[in-house]
Structures are given as structure tokens and as C-alpha cells.
Amino acid sequence: MMSWKAILESRLPVRKQLEVQERLHRTFTAVLEGQAVELRWLREKRWNITEENYLEMARGKTGALIAGSCEVGGLAGGASAAQAKMLYEFGMAVGLAFQVQDDILNLVGKEEEYKKEIGGDITEGKRTLMVLHTLKKAAPEEKQYIIKTLDSHTGRQEEIGKVVAIMEKYGSIAYAKRIAKKMVVDAKRGVMALPATQARERLLALADFLIERKV
Predict the structure, then answer these.
(1) Is residue 1's pLDDT more than 70?
(2) What was the pLDDT predicted at 14?
(3) Topology given in CATH for the domain delimited by 2-212
(4) Do residues 124 and 147 touch, judged by C-beta distance below 8 A?
(5) Percent of the chain with pLDDT over 70
């Protein structure tokens, strides 16, 4: 893989190279496990999923990738163990926020900005934070409709629109926005203990971008 080649060709001490490789291996494993969990939910048509189950899946699928990237970058740049841990936790928080924001945009974003099909997550049957929140609040017939629609993998905009309308009725999209914003606030607070450098300012700007993005 290109990442291993870059590490071996770097000027990092051998011990540091091994440490970085271990972190990358852990990152790639977590990403694969997170993706596997989501695919298993779809294959088995599982609906006994909690919001914490979703967040745990997203920690692997998306959070681990950004967390590992931040941590490895810090280690390669000479960060202490404590600073690398802060960077990892920052990356995990913004990674989760990124995933939640992506799920939101998939429902209510503008296709010309988002660059992907709006409502595609419903067609794929994905168990997003908004879906799980709605299922907790919805009336039995609404809950049944959502599950039936997502399990059918429909691409019909009328059916997708009805699911989104039910989500909006119970404030599930607004709820997800609040969760994502809190994740970013927590992430930014965590890196304020790092030295006040241009690098830290870039991390703070990245966190803001992830929650404000429309693509």
C-alpha cells in the first residue's frame, strides 16, 4: 500500500515508523469492521438498533479514519503521546460529526451542491441517526411504513419524500443537526490544550467546515 511505502521512505526513526504502522493497521481494521457492521444490518434486515449502536458503527466506519489520520500526522510531526491522544479524540469527534452531517445532506441537501443523489440513503436502507430517532417517536403505522420503505430499497421520490416528512414531523433532522454541532464543539474544546499554532487554527477551521459543508 502507498501508506506503508511512504512510511518506509520517510526519515522517521525505525521505532516511530513501527508506531505509525501500528496506528494505521488499527485504523484500517476499525474502518473495515464498521463498514461490515452496517452491511450486516442491511443484509439481515435488522431494526433492533439503538442510536448508540449507530454511533459505534460510525466510529469505525468514518470516525476511525479521521481520528487515525490526525493521530498519525501528529506522531509523524513530533507530537507527544498526550498530544497524539488529543488529536485522535479530535479526529474521532469531527469524524462522527462528518458522518452525521453527510446523512443529513443526503436527505435535505441540494443535489447540485451535494453531488450525490438526494435520498440515496433511504434507497439503500441505511440505519441513520435520523431514522433511528424517528422510529423511537413515530406512531406504529408510521414506523411500519418507514421500515417497509427502507427494506424495499425504493427509488421512488414520492415514497422517499414521505419518509423524510415523517422525520421532519418528529424533529429528527433537527435533532441530528444538534448532535453533530455538539460533536464539533466538543472536538474544538479538546484541541484548545494544544499549542496556539497555525496548525491548531487549521484544525479548528476544519471542524467548522465539516459541520457547515454542503458537499
Answers:
(1) no
(2) 67
(3) Farnesyl Diphosphate Synthase (1.10.600)
(4) no
(5) 90
The pLDDT assigned to 138 comes to 98
Name all contacts of 206-213 with Cβ < 8 Å and 24+ positions apart.
206/94, 207/90, 207/94, 207/97, 208/184, 210/94, 210/97, 210/98, 210/101, 210/184, 211/97, 211/101, 211/180, 211/181, 211/184, 213/101, 213/105
Q: What is the mean pLDDT of the chain?
A: 90
Q: Which residues of 62-85 are buried (b: 16+ CB within 10 A; e: fewer)?
A: bbbbbbbbbbbebbbeebeeebbe
Residue 90 burial class via C-beta count within 10 angstroms: exposed 0-12, middle 13-18, buried 19 and up: buried
Evaluate whether 191 touches 203 at the Cβ level (below 8 Å): yes
Neighbour tally for 14: CB within 10 Å: 8
Q: What are phi and psi of 176, to 5 degrees?
A: -65, -40
Nearest to 27 by CA among 80, 83, 75, 97: 75
Q: How far apart are CA 135 and CA 133, in angstroms?
A: 6
Rounded Cα–Cα distance for residues 146 and 150 (Å): 6
Higher pLDDT: 146 or 113? It is 146
Predicted pLDDT at 3: 61
State mean pLDDT over 139-165: 97
In the block, cell 441540494 appears at 110
Read off the pLDDT of each residue in 130-134 and give the average, rounded to a whole number.
98
Which residue ranges make up each domain of the chain?
A: 2-212
Residue 46 DSSP symbol: -
